[in-house]
Amino acid sequence: MELDGEEVDRLFHALADRTRRDILAQAMTGDHSVSALARRYPFSFAAVQKHVAVLEKAGLVTKQKHGREQRVVTNIQAIERARTLLDHFERLWVERLERFEAVLEEED
Amino acid sequence: MELDGEEVDRLFHALADRTRRDILAQAMTGDHSVSALARRYPFSFAAVQKHVAVLEKAGLVTKQKHGREQRVVTNIQAIERARTLLDHFERLWVERLERFEAVLEEED
DNA sequence: ATAATCTACAACTAAATGGTTGTAGATTCT
DNA sequence: AGAATCTACAACCATTTAGTTGTAGATTAT
Question: What was the ipTM of the complex prediction?
Fold first, then answer.
């Protein structure tokens, strides 16, 4: 598993904004159109539309057309992906600790 | 647990850069000074120093002075924190699924 | 003592980010 | 048919970001 790549950049960058995290949380709990989401924030429709686009490029959401509306649907796999990446970081740390403990064992 | 706040912004933003993720991975596997880290990248010392500062403000690393060196040490709790935040997102999604399933049960 | 190394920080630049307004095409409502 | 709604996208602006070079203070090595 690679910890580099622009895909990962986009994923964490999308999560690094309060409004986008809130939009994502909204989309997690129910289906909302872009304009329904936009009404919840003190920003223009276009601003919220851009945030959704950032989430979409990060793979965190997709859009489904329903008539004139565009429903924002979460992609739970992208969250799993982010978690897996963090797990790999943690493992590096744990493995180092284990190596350290192995050395202590030898010293006995 | 809050999913908002500038602290969280800083955390995910720090992770949203390939070089910083790599620096973090290096710091996870062993102790390195800032200049030792800087030598591994095709950037100036100052650039790497800034990346470390971003990681530090995000709480992902701390610095420990050893003589003229500054050792970069990871703070595993910050990674745990990020994982916990992602877990909360996932839970929103799962809870929604459960509500949905409960409705289906009722219909029987 | 002097030179080399490590760090901190300021000043600068180009590009990206997050917001705005405005225009225009689809779709739905009356 | 005409009005209202939803979306897409361009153009613009202010701020932040990620890089640079340069200067200066502390510490270590010769």
Answer: 0.92
CB < 8 Å to B22, chain A = 3-4
Is B48 exposed, middle or buried, given 0-12, 13-18 or 19+ CB atoms closer than 10 A? buried
Taking the CA of residue B12 and the C1' sugar atom of nucleotide C9, their distance in angstroms comes to: 25
Structural domain includes residue A1:
no
HSE (CB half, 13 Å, CA atoms) of B8? 20
Backbone angles phi, psi at B73, to 5 degrees: -120, 130
Number of domains in chain B: 1
Q: Is the CB of A35 under 7 A from strand D?
A: yes
Closest CA to B86 of B12, B10, B7: B12
Range of the domain at B15: 6-107
| pLDDT tens sequence across B81-94 | 999 999 999 999 99
Looking at residue A16, which CATH number applies to its domain? Answer: 1.10.10.10
Q: CA-CA distance, A7 to A20, in Å (whole number)?
A: 17
